Design the sequence.
């Protein structure tokens, strides 16, 4: 006769089997629907069918993601006092009208995470079903009666302990079966406004942030699907570590980026020294960058020499500097970015050259036309006012001895950080992003000319032309149209006879030159009204894109989740704020772990940097990573007044050893660490480099202290705390972060005296 447990497991297995059977059916249906074509399903007269098909498609997509993760789909059951029972899982499954499995994010599943004996929500029993794929392995029942309330109010204690004991892999695993009450409240907080989630190390902030992303997608999929949620983490090591959590929840449409990956085309992983980070992170860098982008490019020629009407016209370095200053003033007054300023630059140079022409009888238009015809003027213009990319401008800093807006020492520190480097640091990324905005779009690549038949196609109304067009209207005389404009930008008026095509073309060439383009010759074309006209062949491709042809603006993010947000510098906040303009936010962090020299002292201060106001704050109190003994030791370095995290994790070993030979001691500690565990040696960035060659053992990671934030390992060997503290202004906070990475064992090795806080 099987015992009750075995019987219960068998009963649950039947339910799980039914769920998988139904899913198989849905999968087959989805494949068939895909084969049939979605249009046919959508055209069905029964609207319920369309909804069902959509559900089947969605389930199939989720299943693909879940299959890849091989996680059990069913993990919970709730029994209510009215006799009702449901099963809770990673996705919702119905058989006809009967719900077989409730999605963990559905309101009906909330009691699974919230019910306590004090507030049971009608639940009499919560059961965690421990599955390996489709096979039920074990059950953990929680009978809710008033006597059950323990000190920590842990829900599903057996399952939680089992989850905490599970061996650690290279990636973080989801916690969907064991989310705790306070975590659930944070996950399900309203999407709107800004939700700040704080808590000590290991309280599950990152987990909450990721489960919240999955929750928001569930509650408003139409709004958030397709990459409208952005999750930002501090480093690529960290984003890689957490990258499996959302797929294991069946969600793959969230953008997960590290701070070094927010600008297209750049993947930065290296951090600058605190001294450099302090300069690059400060918001005065915006002014520095503005000065930099208007300065004379290092490759620009410093003399312009042309011959006109037998006269040698020269602009020397001082004239050119003055001309550049005038272009800047003109552009700043009109909000023109440097990349859109070549037209203005041409006009200012022509003014300066004309001022040197001796001879009152000479004509200004003819002068512009003649000079404009000279290839040398255009070659000069391109070199003197080149198209600028953010990377090009930032690289000038390596060579710039005097940086407007910085004192000499800061300028030298900044320049030094670029010398001899070919890669960008994470701290450069906000500067590149700022420059992208400041410089404006690059002139567009040349577009294929419109086929002639398309030009003739016009029957009624006006069109936007793709290039300049010169045409002659019967009553108004010669008109010149510019790209993208349906109305003329210039009218010749009665001065040019309607038949004098050559004169009209000369006039138009002068106007076009003022717009920054040189005409080589003319061909036939059509104006915006479909009338025949002349189209110039330009020396350079047109930088102006027709309004209709602009690439669609990228969809903005609608929710931005920031992890380790305590560390964002003012420039990083500006970069995030640009992406979060239309977004609600979830801001996650721990001020005690702030290590950036410009980190904020409070959450309202951070939100002010982001241009947002706090809507709600949720503080997580219980730690799940660090055992209490290690948490208490780490808390010694905290500022007095900050309470250590109350840890739920049992066990843990702590050993603090003073040694003579650090390298030998590290080798010994690595040999003694259990083999089936994840092991990290954490040291200052400089020491980590040396240790990495020394500790060449597979599965043992040597991690620089600056990269360890957000990560965790079963065993941590921490090397020379005094050096970690001394390495940077917020060294104590860095030490606190390093001390709170261990899940089971922490070995602290030191040769020097320990930092005062740890001696206590
Ligand atoms: N409810 C839970 N059930 C099981 N494990 C949990 C739970 N909450 C957190 N954990 C585990 O605790 C560890 C720490 O979680 P997490 O990294 O999210 O904490 P954190 O607050 O972001 O830490 P830090 O501030 O150090 O970055 C992880 O291994 C996580 O899986």
Sequence:
């Amino acid at each position: 006769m099987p015992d009750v447990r075995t019987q219960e497991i068998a009963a649950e297995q039947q339910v799980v089997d039914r769920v998988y059977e139904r899913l198989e059916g849905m999968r087959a249906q989805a494949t068939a629907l895909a084969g049939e074509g979605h249009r046919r399903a959508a055209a069905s007269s029964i609207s319920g069918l369309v909804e069902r098909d959509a559900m089947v498609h969605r389930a199939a997509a989720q299943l693909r993601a879940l299959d890849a993760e091989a996680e059990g789909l069913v993990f919970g059951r709730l029994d209510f006092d009215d006799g009702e029972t449901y099963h809770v899982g990673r996705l919702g499954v119905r058989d006809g009208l009967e719900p077989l499995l409730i999605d963990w994010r559905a309101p009906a599943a909330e009691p699974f995470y919230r019910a306590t004996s004090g507030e049971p929500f009608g639940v009499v029993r919560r059961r965690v079903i421990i599955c390996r794929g489709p096979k039920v392995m074990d059950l953990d029942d929680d009978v809710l009666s008033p006597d059950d309330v323990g000190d920590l109010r842990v829900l599903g204690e057996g399952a939680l302990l089992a989850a905490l004991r599970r061996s650690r892999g290279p990636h973080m695993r989801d916690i969907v079966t064991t989310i705790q009450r306070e975590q659930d409240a944070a996950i399900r907080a309203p999407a709107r406004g800004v939700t700040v989630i704080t808590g000590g190390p290991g309280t599950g902030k990152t987990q909450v942030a990721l489960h919240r992303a999955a929750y928001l997608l569930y509650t408003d999929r139409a709004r958030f699907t397709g990459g409208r949620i952005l999750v930002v983490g501090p480093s690529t090591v960290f984003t890689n570590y957490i990258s499996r959590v959302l797929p294991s929840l069946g969600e793959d449409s969230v953008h997960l980026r590290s701070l070094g990956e927010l600008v297209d085309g750049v993947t930065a992983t290296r951090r600058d020294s605190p001294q450099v980070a302090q300069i690059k992170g400060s918001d005065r860098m915006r002014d520095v960058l503005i000065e930099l982008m208007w300065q004379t490019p290092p490759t620009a020629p410093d003399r312009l020499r042309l011959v006109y009407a037998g006269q040698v016209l020269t602009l020397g370095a001082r004239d050119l500097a003055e001309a550049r200053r005038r272009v800047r003033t003109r552009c700043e007054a009109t909000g023109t970015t440097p990349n859109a300023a070549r037209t203005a630059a041409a006009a200012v140079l022509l003014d300066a050259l004309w001022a040197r022409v001796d001879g009152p009888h000479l004509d200004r238009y003819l002068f512009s036309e003649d000079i404009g015809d000279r290839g040398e003027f255009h070659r000069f213009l391109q070199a003197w006012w080149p198209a600028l990319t953010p990377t090009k401008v930032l690289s000038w800093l390596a060579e710039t001895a005097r940086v407007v807006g910085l004192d000499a020492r800061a300028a030298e520190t900044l320049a030094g950080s670029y010398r001899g480097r070919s890669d960008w640091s994470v701290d450069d990324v906000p500067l590149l992003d700022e420059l992208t905005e400041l410089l404006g779009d690059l002139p567009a690549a040349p577009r294929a000319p419109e086929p002639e038949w398309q030009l003739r196609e016009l029957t009624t109304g006006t069109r936007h032309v793709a290039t300049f067009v010169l045409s002659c209207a019967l009553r108004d005389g010669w008109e010149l149209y510019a790209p993208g404009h349906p109305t003329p930008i210039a009218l010749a008026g009665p001065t040019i006879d309607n038949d004098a095509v050559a004169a009209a073309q000369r006039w138009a060439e002068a106007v076009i030159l003022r717009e920054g383009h040189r005409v080589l010759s003319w061909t036939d074309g059509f104006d915006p009204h479909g009338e025949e006209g002349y189209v110039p062949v330009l020396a350079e491709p047109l930088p102006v894109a027709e309004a209709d042809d602009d690439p669609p603006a990228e969809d903005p993010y609608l929710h931005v989740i920031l992890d380790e947000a305590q560390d964002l510098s003012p420039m990083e906040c500006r970069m995030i704020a640009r992406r979060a303009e239309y977004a609600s936010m979830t801001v996650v962090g721990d001020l005690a772990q702030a290590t950036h020299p410009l980190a904020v002292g409070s959450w309202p201060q951070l939100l002010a940097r982001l241009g947002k106001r706090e809507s709600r704050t949720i503080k997580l109190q219980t730690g799940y990573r660090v055992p209490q003994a290690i948490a208490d030791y780490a808390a010694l370095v905290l500022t007095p007044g900050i309470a250590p995290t109350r840890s739920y994790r049992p066990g843990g070993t702590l050993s603090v050893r003073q040694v003579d030979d650090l390298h030998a001691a590290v080798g010994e500690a690595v040999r003694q660490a259990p083999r089936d565990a994840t092991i990290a040696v954490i040291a200052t960035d400089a020491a980590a480099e040396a240790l990495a060659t020394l500790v060449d053992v597979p599965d043992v990671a040597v991690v620089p202290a600056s990269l360890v934030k957000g990560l965790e390992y079963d065993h941590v060997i921490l090397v020379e705390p005094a050096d970690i503290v001394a390495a940077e202004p917020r060294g104590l906070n860095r030490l606190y972060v390093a001390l709170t990475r261990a899940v089971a064992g922490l070995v602290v090795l030191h040769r020097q005296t320990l930092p005062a806080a740890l001696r206590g």
Q: What stands out?
A: The chain is about 40% helix and 20% strand. The mean pLDDT is 85. The CA atoms of residues 300 and 383 lie 5 Å apart. The pocket of adenosine-5'-triphosphate is lined by residues 160, 163-164, 172, 175, 178-180, 183, 199, 201-207, 590, 593, 624-625, 710, 712, 740 (CB under 6 Å).
